[in-house]
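so i finally got all the pieces together for this one. its two components total, 594 residues if u count the protein bits. some of the lines might not be protein, just check the labels. i wanna see the whole assembly predicted at once instead of chain by chain like last time, that was a mess tbh
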Amino acid sequence: MADHTADALLAPRLTSAQAAELASSAGLTEMGIRPPLGRYAAQVWQRRSFIWNLSASRAYSKNQGSYLGQSWAVLRPMLDAAVYVIIFGFLFDSSAPGIDNRAAFITIGTFTYTLFQTSVMSGLNSIPSNLQLIRSHRFPRAVVPLATVMTETVLFAPILVAMLVITMVTGLLPGMGAVWPTWSWLLLPFAAVLLAIFSSGVAMFFARVGARAPDIANAMPFILTLGRYASGGMFLISAMIPEGAWYRPILLHQPVAIYLELFRAVFGNESLIPMTPMLWLEAILWAVVVFVIGFLYFWRAEETYGRD
Amino acid sequence: MTEDIDFEIDPENLPKRLERKPLGPPSVVVDDLHITYRVFGARRGGTTRQRTSLWDKAISLGRPDTGPITEAPAVRGVSFVAHHGESIGILGTNGSGKSTLLRAVAGLLPATSGRVFTSAEPELMGVNAALLPRLTGERNIMIGGLALGLNAKQVRESVPKVAEFAELGDFLYLPMSSYSSGMASRLRFAISTIRTPEILMIDEALATGDASFRKKSTARIEEIREKAGTVFFVSHSLASVRAMCTRALWIEKGELVADGDVDDVADAYNAFVEGRTNASSGAKLR
């Protein structure tokens, strides 16, 4: 290739050893290598206002480009809940024995699962859909999945308010127990924060998977639908799974089921689902453990994000 | 994007030739850099490797028009040393690997093999100007500045300055998707130089600016070079490379063909391009 005149113009080439020696004697640092975990975590913490700004701007622009705009953030889970309430609240009404208000039970389960579902989906796509940003600036890449989950959490605030209103309205439906506000509702934001921390861990895990194998984005909706049923989004696990089945403890104590139960317990309208310190403890433990695992897994591939 | 990209530069808009300054210590050392892209869904044949294992046949069953993953080597064994106070032009026909090389040196694209050492975090300005096209110019300045590592207060203070340098006017509060390509690249340049970078890389980004903005950005680049920085400059305009650079690298098909004084390399490159009939490069060269 273009061998004419060119060879004379090439500077003498250094060997790898010479290059490394020159670099270290001039005090240069190597690019494209993964920073140690401690420094990486500190860098992410330093960029917290970046995470916040990115997610707030995203939340604002997310539903632009449709006539109903931001209302879709609330309308989508409402339509979801309506479907499940009709099917599991009225048609197959034996799915939650002992529950006074199945409509509220299903509404809370569906709305809460929405936060987990959207966080995981957007986390999965976070690297491919932010490639432009990743290829323009250098920053710890964990910022990207964290900001996408924070976007979903910000969008969850109006959903939470809608959930309160709809749950009270379900008390007026025929055959459903009344729902009245209680002081424990003030704990809802804390439950939402725990769920968001847990979802961030899952999102960081899948962000790495999704960056390497985009195929997973096609399979994920099915996994998430399965997860909705496995977490008791619309039925009572403890009543539907036979006592003594080996998978019963797994289904009862898997994290998403714990968070759905926590939200229902905080609403405090069902005597069958009491709020216990044990429930909060489990929720906190899952949040911390899954977040740490997700962060570590994401960090292990830090230098590869942005590659095709 | 309705504007045509104008690669031609009027001679009177170019600054006087740069004076050669004595070189400082090394700022970038690139050692045998290789970069290979993975391309999904490439057509079979051509560059696709023949795969015969049962597993490979199985996973490509459902995709008659697509081969398995194709590997496209973009940079193949490039080595060079850059110094402080140097302004380096990178020449090469389209698809020769110039942008890929810059991205890798900037640490934005991981190397497949080889190593890159730098004295500071390089700042790259690419052609793809819009960071977050659905957000306003103002939000883009905020997010760009924060991504650079400034804190929120510093970024807020710099917003008016950046907006003024980029000459955005009322467009500051409109989504970036409504910007012309020139406006977007002006904003991008202004964001990239909020903080004076030690190593600045410019990838065709100034081609879309008009004459007055070129003057302004050239002055800014000079300022950076004066502060003992290193500037890398990719452009298809040989005239602007000659005017803005002291040294040039010529890359062809991912390999370094020439590296030396800008005039020598530019002459050799020019002779090479003019010698090619039906050149695949669409850019005009003087």
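Residues 77 and 275 of chain B are 26 Å apart (CA to CA).
The longest strand of chain B covers residues 26-39.
anyway lmk what u think
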